[in-house]
Write a structure and sequence with these properties.
single chain, alpha/beta, Rossmann fold, eight-stranded mixed β-sheet, two-stranded antiparallel ribbon, 6 helices, 10 strands, 27% helix, disordered N terminus
């Protein structure tokens, strides 16, 4: 499926991959730039770390007027992230922003799966890992809005975990998601509303990987008409982000 052509983007988009140094290593960052940008989107991929699996969505957002920065991360060896995993990805995101984007455009975040955890941490959330480690980032980012697709929220069960989060959020969950169930997205809503507006979208029949344009090769996603859903996702996420 390919929504890049079907959506008739309003702007031409340039695409490149650049290398930055962060955490004493070299990392690649996908950079998508429209002719007339009005938002800056940072995209945080899930456990696999590959934003290419979401390229049509990201290209559609760029075509609507967003500069998109999407770092490539290493695959997390364990499905349960470590303190190091979370802090490293957060640092790469901060370095990508500081080194690649000299702009005062409003900053918004879009993430999938564990990438949503990184965005919440960068928004001031406190996480508790199964190891007992508490993760609190000293340097956060000033997001205008967040879009969280299939967020895992067990990390935020400690009292006050989301008290410092004040950014409006749109969150997506699928009723057939066997990795992060709908009740995890509902937990974010219940912890933040009414203090913070949360737009919860529950997609009937969608699984964890329905929100990827190119799921991993070992995944069989049975959601019907994935092309139509990808178009809907790009349209509704873009509208929420003011694009």
């Amino acid at each position: 499926m390919n929504i890049e052509l079907g959506m008739r983007m309003a702007q031409e988009v340039s695409s490149k991959t650049v290398s930055i140094t962060s955490c004493s290593e070299a990392w690649e960052v996908m950079v998508l730039e429209p002719q007339t940008p009005k938002r800056l989107v940072i995209f945080a991929a899930g456990r696999g770390g590959d934003p290419e699996r979401h390229r049509p969505l990201l290209t559609a957002l760029a075509g609507k007027g967003a500069i998109v920065l999407a770092p490539h991360f290493d695959l997390m060896v364990s499905p349960v992230p470590s303190d190091h995993d979370l802090r490293e990805r957060a640092e790469i995101i901060r370095d990508a922003l500081s080194k690649l984007c000299d702009t005062n455009l409003p900053l918004v975040g879009v993430g999938h799966s564990i990438g949503t955890t990184i965005l919440l941490l960068l928004s001031g959330a406190h996480a508790m890992l199964s190891s007992g480690d508490k993760v609190v980032l000293r340097r956060t980012l000033d997001f205008e809005r967040l879009v969280l697709m299939t967020p895992p929220t067990d990390f935020f069960g400690i009292p006050g975990a989301l008290d410092q989060v004040s950014v409006p959020i749109q969150t997506w969950a699928g009723t057939e998601d066997e990795v992060t169930s709908v009740d995890q997205a509902e937990r974010i809503r219940d912890l933040l509303v009414p203090r913070v507006p949360v737009d919860l979208r529950i997609v009937e029949g969608a699984g964890h990987f329905t929100f990827m344009d190119a799921p991993p090769p070992y995944v069989r996603d049975s959601y019907p008409n994935r092309g139509a859903f990808s178009t809907r996702l790009a349209k509704e996420v873009g509208a929420y982000l003011g694009l």
